[in-house]
Amino acid sequence: MSNNPCAKKRFTTPFRLHMMLLKMDEMSTAIIVCPMSDSDLEEVLAIETDSFPHPWSTTHFHDELASPYSFPLVALDQNGSIVGYICPMLLLDEGHILDVAVHRDFRGHGIGKLLVTRVLSDCREKGAAFVSLEVRPSNVEALTLYKSLGFTETGRRKRYYENGEDAILMEYIYIDREGRGDAV
């Protein structure tokens, strides 16, 4: 069998494996990441509302679009539909991911990873020493993604979320050529 990590999973037939791999290849090459605009908000809000128990409001997204420190991005499929978004900000040398979500029909296809790695690249290019975020302990998929990208757990915010759930604080620290972090 091939070196493809998907090949290690059990599939009912070789045909099903073949079709899954084709779909993943199509999806990863067909996604475009670009800046979010006001005209994207209807689709973004639909994903936000479906993804979170207490979603951001239209005003919140407008504030992010207007902020000189924020650079919200959307992921578009081959039809131009929004399949995910991310709202990062950069203040001085500190990047922060405020919000990220992927449309439920497109989860598990690498779109979240694509968005986060794009933000890590953009923040680094703009001089960030690190990027931080908060994530629910119950969001196992997100925790797994962030850890796979090199984020480390740095602490907790007790009862951070509206339901009393803690937030896990995570950071991605950029490393220089000598293996030292750029952050103080």
How would you spell out the order of helices and strands? HEHHEEEHEHEE
Uncertain segments are 1-14
How much of the sequence lies in strands comes to 25-35%
Instruction: Tell me the CATH superfamily.
Output: Gcn5-related N-acetyltransferase (GNAT)
Oligomer: single chain
- Counting structural domains, the number is 1
Total strands: 7
Distance between the termini: 46 Å
Describe the strand arrangement of the main beta sheet, using strand numbers.
1-2-3-4-5-7-6
What do you see in this structure?
- With 184 residues, this protein is an alpha+beta fold.
- The protein has helices spanning 14-30, 41-51, 58-66, 111-125, 140-148; strands at residues 32-35, 73-76, 82-91, 94-102, 130-135, 152-157, 167-173.
- It has a single domain (32-173), classed as Gcn5-related N-acetyltransferase (GNAT) (Aminopeptidase).
- It is globular, with a radius of gyration of 18 Å.
- The protein has a seven-stranded mixed sheet with strand order 1-2-3-4-5-7-6.
- Residues 1-14 have low confidence and may be disordered.
- Helix content is 33%, strand content 25%.
- A hairpin with a 5-residue loop joins β2 (73-76) and β3 (82-91).
